[in-house]
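dumping this here so i dont lose it
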């Protein structure tokens, strides 16, 4: 019966505690299953998304101007940037019962193509002749112009009169792939990848700012103890909003239950003078403890 009365009390407050993140039972409560002790707390999950922009220099980069008439990057470059963030409530049970991390994966790398590095076997290597770097670059440039001529002949119908429909499309796609592999030897590779990292924050009543991690444009996300990066800060601003009228029991009420009401606090993720996320979330640590009247038995 007492358990039912407690449920009625929470419904009177707005919703059951499992459904309403703004109110929860606090302290020791007697139920049909025995004594239940509850201490409401808030756990925040801060997800930070970063982008890695990598430029890899091609082995023939110094000859791009001479043979292709374009300038190519002569140095590798890696730049990281924060593209976004997200703040959300993290249920305690869900966090503690989280499954084991995903097992590691093995990727077989092709000799012909790779996102992270250049082909180990050059596409223009067809015999045992050893060429100087400049001569190899000249041969590669000649292959590029030859492929472009063949593409134009196929499109205009000057060559391959029996190539049409799906065959023509496949031939053009293969020419594009081969040309790209040659161009990368001069112009290099441009690889952009994104990743999201989760950080768990436990708010405290006497603390409104938390260093989630650190960030460096050269190294990406770093541990909060690495002073070489800029601070990624979680800032919590309590609203101080009063408890809804009629929710708290009067001083003369004797049949009450103790509850904790969370404060609707503004949570913001900041770094380098930029705001990446903002959300209003219930934080029990900045809330109030009140007594809620139980409905009288008839």
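and the seq i came up w/
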């Amino acid at each position: 019966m007492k358990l039912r009365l407690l449920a009625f009390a929470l419904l009177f407050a707005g919703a059951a505690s499992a459904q309403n993140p703004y109110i929860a039972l606090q302290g020791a409560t007697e139920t049909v299953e025995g004594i239940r002790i509850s201490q409401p707390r808030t756990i925040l999950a801060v997800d930070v998304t970063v982008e890695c922009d990598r430029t890899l220099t091609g082995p023939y980069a110094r000859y791009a101007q001479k043979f292709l008439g374009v300038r190519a990057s002569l140095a590798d470059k890696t730049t990281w940037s924060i593209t976004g963030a997200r703040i959300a409530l993290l249920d305690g049970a869900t966090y503690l019962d989280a499954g084991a991390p995903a097992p590691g994966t093995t990727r077989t790398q092709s000799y012909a193509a790779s996102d992270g590095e250049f082909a180990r076997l050059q596409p223009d290597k067809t015999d045992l002749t050893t060429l100087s770097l400049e001569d190899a670059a000249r041969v590669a440039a000649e292959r590029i112009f030859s492929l472009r001529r063949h593409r134009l002949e196929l499109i205009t119908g000057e060559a391959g009169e029996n190539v049409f429909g799906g065959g023509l499309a496949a031939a053009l796609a293969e020419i594009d792939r081969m040309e790209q592999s040659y161009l990368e030897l001069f112009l290099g590779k441009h690889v952009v990848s994104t990743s999201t990292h989760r950080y768990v924050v436990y708010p405290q009543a006497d603390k409104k700012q938390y260093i989630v991690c650190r960030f460096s444009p050269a190294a990406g996300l770093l541990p909060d103890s690495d002073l070489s990066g800029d601070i990624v800060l979680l800032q919590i601003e309590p609203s101080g909003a009063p408890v809804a009228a009629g929710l708290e029991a009067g001083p003369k009420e004797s049949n009450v239950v103790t509850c904790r009401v969370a404060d609707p606090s503004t949570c913001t993720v900041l770094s380098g003078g930029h705001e990446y996320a903002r959300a209003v979330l219930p934080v029990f640590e900045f809330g109030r403890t009140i007594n809620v009247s139980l409905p009288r038995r008839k």
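Confidence is low (pLDDT under 50) at residues 1-18.
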